[in-house]
Predict the 3D structure of the following.
Amino acid sequence: MAKRNGKIKQVRADPKTTMSWLCSTDAYESLCCSGYTKLSDNPEIMSAVNKICDLISSMTIHQMENTEKGDIRIKDGLSRMMDIEPNSRMTRKTFISAIVRNMLLRGDGNSIVLPETQDGYLNNMKPIPPGQVTFVQYSAYDYKVSINGTIYSPDDVLHFVINPDEDYPWKGTGYRTTLKEVAGNLKQAAATKKGFMESKWKPSVIVKVDGLTEEFASPEGREKLLESYIETGRVGDPWLIPAEQFDIKEIKPLSLQDLAISDAVTIDKKTVAAILDVPPFIVGAGEYKEAEWNNFINTRIRPLCNVLELEFTKKLLISPNRYFRFNVRSLYNYDMKTLSEVGANLYTRGIVEGNEVRDWIGMSPKDGLDKLVILENYIPAGMIGDQKKLNQGGGENG
């Protein structure tokens, strides 16, 4: 075995591969930004997260029960608690919003809620801040949850998970790593734009002056020259300058378009939208489209609702025939004309009641519209020949 030399060999950087930048302190502070960027500090990311939280928390939560004729809605004390007052200090709106926000941001794909019971009944549900939660890993499929040092079994808490981890499927993974570089780029673009707009090095006119004049030798003298020849008392007054000493040129200052910041920011915004799976117009990079919005509700909002629905059903309901469901249909963008036409067609075919149609379009129920009706001509195909208008006088003319 060869002996190792005890001396530490110093390695010098190759001057050919070394690069340095030289700029003033003001320019560095204006165009460069440093430090850790939290996802919650990025306007684009927060716009997307706020929209997702707002949509999910605005839906009513229905307690449903499986029956032989189909699923029906159950209204009792538990359904009221879930839909109106899940927490003693919070409504459903703030409660659901806190859960979803923890999953998407600080919780890194995890959100913990601690249920509290009294006399065997569910009494309160507390969303736990991510900083107070620690997961104690026992194996790839078993763990405990530590809340401020108190150990809980996973069966005793509500654990909402998105993007399961590869090694620990019970644990979620968030978007911090994926969005880190994009958030840094957007912060740098904002700092560059701010520094550029506040920079004083953007003159629109350059005045070439003979440097041999005595007045030009000092700041006071240059100020005096400007007052004497260029500054005027009224807007629009002409400049009277000696041709031997002054040469005036108009220049076009560098703009943000020349720096291509706008294009880079648009690309980063669309990247944020793609990662969080929201329409680009939500982060300010695109226009609203109805089909795109409905697809967003169906492919993004609905799966996140399923995460909450399944955990609520698994941990809070004893009956195997009951489950919780968010009213996702309320988020689809349908205009009044479409709803009216669909409702009218379903009503005349005896599929829904008239009051159900009125409820769709935001109208109160009315007496006499709580029965299923059907037009006379809507009959089974095998009974077409039994219509009265076909049989009237048919035998005599035959």
